[in-house]
Amino acid sequence: MWKQAASRKADSVNALIPHEWRIPSPPSNQEQVDITGSYVQQFLSAQEIEITEADAAFIAKKTASGEWTAVDVTKAFCHRAALAHQLLNCLHEIFFEDAIAHAQKLDEELASSKRPAGPLHGVPVSLKDQFHVRGVDTTMGYVGWIGTFQGEVGTGKDKVFESEMVRELRAAGAVLYCKTAVPHTLMSGETINNIIGYVWNPKNRNLSAGGSSGGEGALIGLKGSPLGFGTDIGGSIRIPSAFCGVFGIRPSAGRLPYEGMANSMDGQNSILSVVGPLASSVQSLRLAVQAILAQQPWLHDPLVLELPWRSKEEQLILDAAKGATGRLAFGVFTYDEVVAIHPPVARAVDIVVKTVEKLGHELVQWKPPSHDRIFQIGLKTWFYDSGADVQKAFELSGEPQASQVSSLYGAKGRPMDAVQIAENNVLKREIQKEYMDYWNSTQDQTGTGRPVDAIIAPCAPFAAARPNGYTYVGYTLFVNVLDYTSVVIPVTQVDKSIDKALDNFQPISELDKATQATYDPDIYDGAHVSVQLVGRRLQEEKMLAIAELLSDALAKT
Amino acid sequence: MWKQAASRKADSVNALIPHEWRIPSPPSNQEQVDITGSYVQQFLSAQEIEITEADAAFIAKKTASGEWTAVDVTKAFCHRAALAHQLLNCLHEIFFEDAIAHAQKLDEELASSKRPAGPLHGVPVSLKDQFHVRGVDTTMGYVGWIGTFQGEVGTGKDKVFESEMVRELRAAGAVLYCKTAVPHTLMSGETINNIIGYVWNPKNRNLSAGGSSGGEGALIGLKGSPLGFGTDIGGSIRIPSAFCGVFGIRPSAGRLPYEGMANSMDGQNSILSVVGPLASSVQSLRLAVQAILAQQPWLHDPLVLELPWRSKEEQLILDAAKGATGRLAFGVFTYDEVVAIHPPVARAVDIVVKTVEKLGHELVQWKPPSHDRIFQIGLKTWFYDSGADVQKAFELSGEPQASQVSSLYGAKGRPMDAVQIAENNVLKREIQKEYMDYWNSTQDQTGTGRPVDAIIAPCAPFAAARPNGYTYVGYTLFVNVLDYTSVVIPVTQVDKSIDKALDNFQPISELDKATQATYDPDIYDGAHVSVQLVGRRLQEEKMLAIAELLSDALAKT
């Protein structure tokens, strides 16, 4: 039964791809490992390529001036998104027609008013399938949620209710056109579910696109979207960004509005999932954050803080970039003392370190409080209800859990009680304080008069996970426990001629051994390798400025 | 056993009051109902009266300029605090000698450097007995905590560890000299425990000083402190402020640092207890908040938000006060549809309403989402652990719970589980959103172009509770559930010739009946009556400005 429902749903979405955009016989992953660049360009017109290979910040200028019509832009991205889906399984919902109609309206209004609708006028924006958008389902990958509102029937909300940020994006002039794939439960670093299957990495289809915002990563990685929104409770924005070679920011909780979105384990409030943008440039991330903050989300989401965009927080960094003021200082680490990273990830961190040195900034070896302790505290929050919430969602249809998820939530158990939860909350606050004190203490090691400005760190032990190979999430989860701001930037690609497997690796645990064992230069060759830049809590302006500074410098090396 | 430990502790604190400050035979409550004004002044010198009847903002100017020495100021408040304790039982810890030594040092440093130590240079500050201050106990009213660190023996922290805000207050130049009484558990609107007994209201010793920051209310109400800090999870700053005729602010969570304070049910994070000042003027509250924010508490407490003092948030209000810009708009309600208020409280709200009208501002009848629903959600958070945490504290000594507390935590039960807690968290967020939408909707009812700027509301059904008469906390708890900013301002006093009991009151419930039945004009005569001014989340600057505007206007009526 669930199989039929799942394929009916998948078919109905595929049917929304116009015939002229279909790939007659898509190559297998083995036949065409890398589908970016010239491969995907063969299906597109020169104009479509020009449009889709621009970033959101550039597009916004073109559409606001009327130089590019919103319709042309929207059509181009719809086309490329359709190609991405056929090659990567990255979409849950398609509403190209609505999008083109909306774009048409924007063009008309611009023509008559001469004023763009907002800072995202005519910019296509893709959304992870947790956002409710009128006219389409929100399945979050659950077969049992098809045709319902978050699994409930008869609420009157399905296909009508919209998430707060959807309203704000429309108000900013954005064109919404598709919703992207997630792993059912959202609690995986790979994206897989029983409706669309497995989401592949566009740069290397031996590998995962990451998760849980894996559809976003894949889609933006193939330039089928210039800007999308994902969510992150343990790395779910940063992992797909890193794997797919795009930029992504995990803001601190309370910066951007989560109001009215579907979620797993809603009401767990020790570590809140946060929403944030992924895009093909830092400038586009900034545009997105600024556009949302301009809507004063704190008046519409009770969990959002009244923090408008703070230009002066960027200034220190912008001044440093121009050499106008003193240096910046960075902490750096490549090993969290739990799981060792693969050679290409170590090389990526090294490239960033050398870039920082070349720019004349300072580096401090990061020796923080135990990341293992942080990891254990964070992981515990995922099991407060012992899986009761997600198990209920699976039971609606009887569908099985993917192995990536059943290893977490396959067995039923007793939920934790208030005493256990309170205890974990106290441990969390204590380690946050300890980490904060450590961060402050680096003031004595820098010559800047300040503690380090940001940490350079791996996003994961691997450039990207191999299928069923997401062994360890500690490199991203620590940021969620600490509620820090983190921006992912692409650095390099795996080069099998340089990035040899380690000869005599000495694992400290089975997990460490299993993780290192997944590295194979032939499999990984060409994959994106990224790092994350971690800042203190609510430092979105500063961290975007630092990310721009470093990615500009990396582009020049 | 516990009785001996309790009286030994009480005696040891009383022994710290110098002989010359002792009241030979203090009158009974009946003999001397009101101990403020001329009654307490008889024990003080003219200089001591001048100093102690100044507010913290004024004192700070005098001590910063050296016109008043910190030693004179400190001694005067120590003396008046000692009197307050003998008449009201408001102190848990006395460290006058340390304070005077600190003041001496401040005087010397000022003399040599010509620069005050900080914005609170030489200002005596009293602290609720949740703050850890070196050299003295933190008992929080538990006999079992005497001589321990939060009930634990052998941590090495007792009498050594200090709370983050203690460090910040010292850095701002404040002189700490005493810690004030709380009800054991902190979960009561009256202050009582087995060490110091019952804390009485200085203006009317038939009545409670309120709770849980009841020692602060009593002490500041008698001008034994110009500025103190309490905490509030359901009204615990606002209730004693209101009852004792002082000003108090309940900031939103994350504005001021709670790091390193003792607490009940630590780790319950659906509704966080917040810390905030009580003082004899709005200007003093502002000075206190500004002084703490100037210490950048967000770098030392992981739960504090990076929100420096925002002067422009005050500007709208200051401009309106000067008549420079448009009007303000206020919502007003006197009945939450659960429990009716006593006649004097209704009259106090009416006085404020008339003042607002006289100033030319607008009024909107406040018809919000169900306060009963909000109350139920809030109350539930107090019972997540079914009392396990506070019961453990009582068991350390075997002492009994006061009836004000045993009605809540007397019986043992099972803690709630993660599923129940998550459900309550979702309900809380939903009502926060609903309330926010309602608040936004008042834009259509005001002529200001904005939703209402603040709500004028009762703080409690009564001017102050009679002993064992704190029947209902809904008028304050709704603010904690919504995480709003609220400032209490004194308005008037009960006048038995005006404030008659209601003739034909029709209660809607037993609770409503019991609450109204506690009103007796003869008992209440002379008591302070206050209101709270409730603003949206994190509106501390704006709400203090509004409180100043209205209290200035009230003073002129």
From TrEMBL, chains A, B:
<feature type="active site" description="Charge relay system">
    <location>
        <position position="212"/>
    </location>
</feature>
<feature type="binding site">
    <location>
        <position position="212"/>
    </location>
    <ligand>
        <name>substrate</name>
    </ligand>
</feature>
<keyword id="KW-0378">Hydrolase</keyword>
<dbReference type="InterPro" id="IPR036928">
    <property type="entry name" value="AS_sf"/>
</dbReference>
<protein>
    <recommendedName>
        <fullName>amidase</fullName>
        <ecNumber>3.5.1.4</ecNumber>
    </recommendedName>
</protein>
<comment type="similarity">
    <text>Belongs to the amidase family.</text>
</comment>
<dbReference type="Pfam" id="PF01425">
    <property type="entry name" value="Amidase"/>
</dbReference>
<feature type="binding site">
    <location>
        <begin position="233"/>
        <end position="236"/>
    </location>
    <ligand>
        <name>substrate</name>
    </ligand>
</feature>
<feature type="active site" description="Charge relay system">
    <location>
        <position position="128"/>
    </location>
</feature>
<feature type="domain" description="Amidase">
    <location>
        <begin position="72"/>
        <end position="544"/>
    </location>
</feature>
<dbReference type="GO" id="GO:0004040">
    <property type="term" value="F:amidase activity"/>
</dbReference>
<feature type="binding site">
    <location>
        <position position="186"/>
    </location>
    <ligand>
        <name>substrate</name>
    </ligand>
</feature>
<dbReference type="InterPro" id="IPR023631">
    <property type="entry name" value="Amidase_dom"/>
</dbReference>
<dbReference type="InterPro" id="IPR020556">
    <property type="entry name" value="Amidase_CS"/>
</dbReference>
<feature type="active site" description="Acyl-ester intermediate">
    <location>
        <position position="236"/>
    </location>
</feature>
